[in-house]
From TrEMBL:
Compartments where located: Membrane
GO cellular component, one term: plasma membrane
Domain of life: Bacteria
Transmembrane segments: 24-54, 66-86, 114-136, 247-266
One Pfam family cited in the UniProt record for this chain: CbiQ
The protein's name: Cobalt transport protein
Membrane topology: Multi-pass membrane protein
Keyword vocabulary terms for this entry: Membrane, Transmembrane, Transmembrane helix
Amino acid sequence: MTNRLIGFRPGDSFLYQLSGASKLIFFILVSIACMTTYDTRFTLTIAVFSLLLFKAANIKFKEVSFIFFLVIVFAFINVLVVYFFAPSYGEKIYGVKTIIFQGWGRFYLSSQELFYLFNLIIKYFCTVPLAVIFLITTHPSQFASSLNQIGIPYKTAYSVSLTLRYIPDVQEEFYMIRMSQEARGIELSRKAALRQRIKGNLQIVIPLIFSSLEKIDTISTAMELRRFGKNKKRSWYSFQTFHKGDMITMFLAVFFLLVSFYLISLNKGRFYNPWL
């Protein structure tokens, strides 16, 4: 069960030595860069770079495989929906029509549409590995102090820290409840029918939401009793100053963002057209 929880896990790769703020800035700027351009050369480069960082973080794939499975399923559904509503959108973008499969009526497949859908899929692999790396390699307390370090109010930073801390707790409680239900004879594994699994998981999620709200109220009351938020500034136990690695990380983030803007100017739009 522990392997299925998404949250901070101790490690010894260089990514753990970076400040949480620098990793967040890198994730946000690179995500913006990948979302603003459809230049396949750029997005493929970022996707490969993200996967290399994922490997460098020494994160075992089996620990996060279900996340990638969900992303693949969502990407597949997204591609089907886009194709269903706009099967000729690619040729409108690139100004060329090269039919690969004639199909039926308006549902034919062209090289341009296939290329456009391929670009949509690549974007997932640009950002999802970075998000997983950020969650697993960043300690919530250290991340909160880093956010406050770059000028974000400490109340907001502490809220983010509590959120990151609470994600694994919610997941663990969910799996514990599900295991208890299965021990009572309620089948929720893959052996059960899909409808039964959905109904059973919903019966877990609803009480879990109410128990989570109750915990939030308890934490808020405890913080108020300790006069949290009285002062405008506070000190941090897990404080980390920016070092050379953080500077390089933020420089790369800005560099990737500027490259995406340059490619938009070079391509005279967001889309790279290989048929020109």
